[in-house]
Amino acid sequence: MSSSDPIRCAERLELVALGDLPIVQPGDDLPALVCDALDRNGVRLDSGRDAIVITSKVLSRAEDRFVDLTSVTVSPRAQELAAQTHKDARLVQLILEEASAVSRTAPGVIIVRHRLGFVSANAGIDESNVRGTYVESASTATPADARGHGPWVLLLPRDPDGSARAIRNAIRTRFAADVGVVISDSFGRPFRLGTVGAAIGVAGLPPLWDQRGALDLHGRTLQHTITALADQVAAAADLVAGQGDEGRPVVVVRGLRYTPDDDANAGALVRAPDQDLYA
Amino acid sequence: MSSSDPIRCAERLELVALGDLPIVQPGDDLPALVCDALDRNGVRLDSGRDAIVITSKVLSRAEDRFVDLTSVTVSPRAQELAAQTHKDARLVQLILEEASAVSRTAPGVIIVRHRLGFVSANAGIDESNVRGTYVESASTATPADARGHGPWVLLLPRDPDGSARAIRNAIRTRFAADVGVVISDSFGRPFRLGTVGAAIGVAGLPPLWDQRGALDLHGRTLQHTITALADQVAAAADLVAGQGDEGRPVVVVRGLRYTPDDDANAGALVRAPDQDLYA
């Protein structure tokens, strides 16, 4: 495997969701929790073969990215956009604070360019807990619960690439294996319905797989074949990670073939606005 | 498993690319070839658990969707668009014939709504053989080779949903197993770089997985959680199907959990233009 051909196609891939991660609490050491779960499950990791996919939500929880909507001060611009979109003005305020630009709005929809670079609906803010308050869920009380009545929402992690690197390093230290780490989130899409997993943080795993130099079956150079490797790994992992009461936020992907890349980052997956015909 | 909860999340998924499919030739009976390959590989299929993903390219080959560019009559509109985009006017003509509407154009890029409903670059026409002619590749001569010097391109299949159904039926007859079938193609994306596998034909497998009624970890109703199941299965399969000289166009996905759906079709994944903020 030469450095100019850092990835080869797997023939067999296995995805396993770790079932016994505790519910992550603000302040938790997520790299240690992930390593502990790998340990408990007896997972043996192969460098340059395996990758770990972690849903952004647990990273957000560990970073205490909860925001109590009653604590939000609404700007005139957020007020105006909330009226246009029929959304909670406090949520709109947070979306604007998380965004570098607004892409599209419609009733019920605000699509922005997130400060992390990618384009997503609602700046990736998780509202699934808006309907209740954390203090009501006594069985899963979190430090955030003690601080007020919400409703609460959950922002995306501060630095998913950095967190992916920290998890990669922790795994390398604990298991002497160099495996890629992907922080995933669910993205809606223009043109197509339904969400798909996508990578918002990457370490070690080459985010793009450039097959342009490869030959096709007839010995001619292939065109248009830069694959979004990290996004496809995130989408595959979403099939086993699930959501809600079946959520299993850590997925081991086994059987890839790649040369670990210290410079990998999720920004490489973002199309620059001036190259985007739909910006 | 009730009919109102037709899909449960897998905990473990396995993807295996069948390695020994012969190069598909125009006129080949693809359902029979797929069944033969499953047979040779000793694959035992589980109803409602497994799915088969097939890249559209082999379906196009079986349907003889090759077009010799020298045979194409170029319209004034294609001529004009070719001048604007610096593309081969004959290819542009075919793109327009395959499209119901043009979405965006730029130098080197024509994005259209395909007659099959989805939005894609170049109407999904495969140009990877444009640079040579089929007659040159003696080792893999096809019936198309004998008919002229090209250059040749390959259009998408005529009716991927219908072909998926035919393959599902052939598998059901041969193996007494009811498994979903996905016809996949590689799609570029607005906002993000790199291609991902997506479903352009579906049979049996529910294309969308609606988790809206499910409860989150705190017992509240989940929002925004309709997953593009068939697209994620296609993206996962792309990780092992590969392209070019490593291409393995038939992938078995094992370990899903779904109730087979006779009404499944890939159109369910397409956002209607009037619901699309980027149309």
The description of the largest β-sheet of chain A is: 5 strands, mixed
Q: Return Rg of chain A in Å.
A: 20 Å
Strand order of the largest sheet of chain A: 1-12-2-8-9
**Rough outline of chain A:** globular
Report the span from N to C terminus of chain A. 38 Å
Q: Identify the CATH architecture of the largest domain in chain A.
A: 2-Layer Sandwich
Kindly report the CATH topology of the largest domain in chain A.
60s Ribosomal Protein L30, Chain: A
Q: How many E-type strands of chain A?
A: 12
Order of helices and strands of chain A: EHEHEHHEEEEHEEEEHE
Average pLDDT level of chain A: 87
Count of alpha/pi helices of chain A = 6
Report helical residue fraction of chain A: 10-25%
Oligomer: homodimer
Number of individual domains of chain A: 2
Q: What's a quick, concise take on this entry?
A:
The structure is a homodimer of 279-residue chains. By secondary structure, chain A is an alpha+beta fold. In chain A, 24% of the residues lie in helices and 21% in strands.
Which descriptors apply to this entry?
disordered N terminus; 279 residues; homodimer; 5-stranded mixed beta sheet; globular; alpha+beta; 60s Ribosomal Protein L30, Chain: A; 2 domains; CofE-like fold
